[in-house]
Amino acid sequence: MPELVAGQHTGWRLASRDKMQAKGDEGKQAKKYASDAKEVLKKLAEEHKGTPYEVLAKRDGSNALGLEWRPRGESDDRFLSTL
To answer: Can you give the pLDDT at residue 45?
Structure first.
């Protein structure tokens, strides 16, 4: 977990990142699943050009699959209170 600075951070939040950080056999398998999924979405977009399926496949293929913990600050708390 990242270090929190008193008066600046109020906790942590889970945020997306481009690269997966998984390690070991489970990490290798997760990275393979992610790679396979991106290939399927790319093929789907190519085979269905001009359709809503192309749009959805491109959108889903651009999602970051990695996760990381980041410090949460007061600005995050103000944003969350507006939801």
So the answer is: 97
CA distance linking residue 14 with residue 50, whole number of Å: 35
The secondary structure of residue 81, as a DSSP letter, is H
Farthest CA pair distance, the chain: 53
The residue with greater pLDDT, 45 or 82, is 45
Find the angle CA(32)-CA(34)-CA(38) to the nearest 5 degrees: 115
Q: What is the pTM of this model?
A: 0.65
Helix H or strand E segment including 72: strand 66-73
77's tokens: 């708390």
The sign of the dihedral angle between the CA atoms of 52, 64, 20, 12 is: negative
Residue from 68, 77, 67 nearest 11 by CA: 77
Helices (H), 1-83: 24-47, 52-61, 74-81
